[in-house]
């Protein structure tokens, strides 16, 4: 009796695909990949064997002819699906046309030989025509066992070397991979937070939360620019989860600016992640009303700190970690000096609570709400700086501003040159908060640059010492039709600054920015 069909196996006419089986196109692609892997792996082994055989026999010997016949069989089989074979080698691993060749002992030895020999030619791989002639194959085999130079290899018909990446290529690829890791972390983080808000906080959910925060802390240490770039992302379908993630990122930025130890950063991040948990226990329609709330509705919403406090203690018990989370959930709407806020003012809140309060207020100002649009990031900074009259801790506010800058990542700015740009990180010059790194999206004539060009506004003219570019004003990206996340996380062209402000004599008595320096 069929285990999946109690009535016995179901009859299927020939050619009928089972439900859930891959479509024919997918199955054909799998067969092609297996075909390529099998014959390309054999080709590498036989090329290695040809090189060894040529060391003791000339090209007309029967042993050489036998190996050449095997290589010819491999190439004819590959020619059915592949016009060219692009081999790339790295530490004994081989890839052909983007497919990894699972190694056997013989193919691994051959791939290692190719890796070492091509490295001597300043190459990482080669492209071989599937219809390569005997002369080319003999020359390639000899090249593997001799000291031939790159010019001799390139002279062989049907072969092209793939050069090693330059330092600039490696740096560009590293930055691109780092941005992709950040984007993946953002997407995974939203799922973790959304499930944690709705489901019971069991051991699995707690471990996923801690793993998420640990990844964020690691990114803050290794790639703080990419972590800050995540704050330009939003997901309207998971607005609550996105807010919690942004608050966590901003809180970690403040914590790092204060010099908190890694262990304390993880504690802070986990507490920030659940600061609004009580909102999930209320009627969610209250947070979607496109108008100002009534006093009664406000009173209902102001219950969420204590609801979160109680829920966290019931879920986790009275452990050191659970107390951090519960305290932050209860206190993040209290004023920093303890004189106001809710639910019960009177005491100065915990440091973690004061940090999360700053992050919470800033993200709320910079985010769309049902009853009002988001403030541009630079205006949100100004509002935040005006909230240091007891409501928010001024030291923590300036710690955040010192990390994200006067123009936070995602700000759309117009330069005095007429170019439009998107801020991606604080600059590397002497005044990084006022002169950030940007992506130039248009040129002086308003023509779109594809891809955008990354540059630093801290660069000066090499002779006149004037700034090459200065921010003239901020712009609304929605009115310009800019998709800011796509610009930040998409392809870009890096233009390293040639004359950063750190390399020249400072200006005399630079005018302070009242919002930053005061």
**CATH topology group of the largest domain:** Hypothetical protein af1432
Portion in beta strands: 5-15%
- Catalogue the unreliable spans: 1-23, 503-518
- Tell me, briefly, the overall form: elongated
Beta strand count? 11
Order of helices and strands: HHEEEHEHHEHHHHHHHHHHHEEEEEHHEH
Strand order of the largest sheet: 10-6-7-8-9-11
**What is the architecture of the largest domain at the second tier of CATH?**
Orthogonal Bundle
CATH class assignment of the largest domain: Mainly Alpha
Number of domains: 3
Query: Quick one: biggest sheet?
Result: 6 strands, mixed
Mean pLDDT rating: 82
The helix fraction, in percent, is: 40-55%
Rg, Cα atoms, Å: 31 Å
| First-residue to last-residue Cα separation | 82 Å
Number of helices: 19
């Amino acid at each position: 009796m069929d285990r999946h069909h109690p009535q016995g196996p179901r009859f299927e006419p020939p050619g009928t695909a089972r439900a859930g089986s891959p479509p024919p196109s997918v199955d054909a692609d799998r067969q092609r990949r297996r075909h390529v892997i099998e014959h390309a792996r054999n080709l590498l082994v036989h090329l290695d064997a040809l090189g060894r055989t040529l060391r003791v026999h000339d090209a007309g010997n029967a042993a050489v002819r036998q190996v050449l016949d095997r290589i010819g069989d491999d190439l004819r089989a590959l020619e059915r699906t592949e016009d060219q074979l692009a081999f790339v080698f790295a530490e004994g691993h081989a890839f052909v046309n983007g497919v990894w060749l699972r190694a056997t002992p013989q193919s691994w030895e051959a791939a290692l030989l190719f890796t070492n020999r091509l490295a001597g030619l300043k190459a990482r791989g080669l492209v071989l025509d599937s219809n390569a002639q005997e002369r080319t194959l003999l020359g390639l085999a000899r090249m593997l066992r001799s000291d031939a130079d790159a010019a001799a290899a390139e002279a062989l018909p049907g072969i092209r070397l793939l050069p090693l990446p330059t330092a600039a290529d490696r740096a560009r690829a590293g930055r691109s991979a780092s941005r992709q890791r950040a984007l993946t972390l953002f997407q995974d983080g939203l799922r973790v937070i959304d499930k944690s808000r709705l489901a019971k906080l069991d051991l699995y959910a707690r471990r996923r939360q801690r793993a998420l925060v640990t990844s964020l802390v690691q990114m803050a240490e290794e790639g703080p620019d990419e972590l800050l770039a995540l704050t330009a992302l939003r997901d309207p379908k998971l607005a609550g989860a996105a807010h919690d993630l942004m608050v966590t990122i901003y809180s970690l930025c403040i914590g790092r600016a204060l010099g908190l130890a890694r262990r304390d950063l993880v504690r802070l991040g986990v507490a920030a992640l659940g600061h609004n948990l009580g909102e999930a226990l209320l009627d969610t329609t209250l947070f979607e009303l496109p108008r100002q709330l009534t006093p009664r509705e406000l009173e209902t919403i102001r219950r969420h700190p204590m609801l979160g406090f109680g829920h966290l203690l019931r879920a986790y018990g009275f452990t050191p970690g659970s107390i951090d989370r519960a305290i932050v959930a209860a206190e993040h709407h209290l004023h920093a000096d303890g004189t106001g806020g809710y639910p019960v003012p009177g005491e100065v809140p915990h440091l973690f609570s004061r940090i999360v309060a700053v992050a919470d207020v800033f993200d709320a100002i910079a985010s769309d709400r049902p009853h009002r649009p988001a403030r541009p990031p630079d205006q949100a900074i100004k509002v935040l700086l005006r909230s240091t009259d007891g409501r928010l801790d001024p030291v923590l506010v300036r710690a955040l501003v010192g990390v994200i800058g006067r123009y936070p990542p995602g700000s759309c700015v117009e330069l005095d040159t007429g170019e439009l740009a998107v801020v991606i990180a604080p600059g590397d010059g002497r005044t990084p908060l006022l002169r950030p790194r940007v992506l130039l999206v248009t040129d002086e004539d308003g023509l779109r640059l594809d891809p955008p060009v990354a540059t630093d506004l801290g660069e000066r003219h090499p002779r006149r010492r004037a700034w090459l570019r200065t921010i003239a004003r901020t712009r609304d990206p929605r009115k310009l039709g800019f998709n800011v996340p796509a610009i930040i996380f998409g392809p870009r062209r890096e233009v390293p600054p040639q004359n950063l402000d750190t390399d020249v004599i400072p200006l005399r008595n630079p005018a302070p920015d009242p919002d930053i320096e005061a």
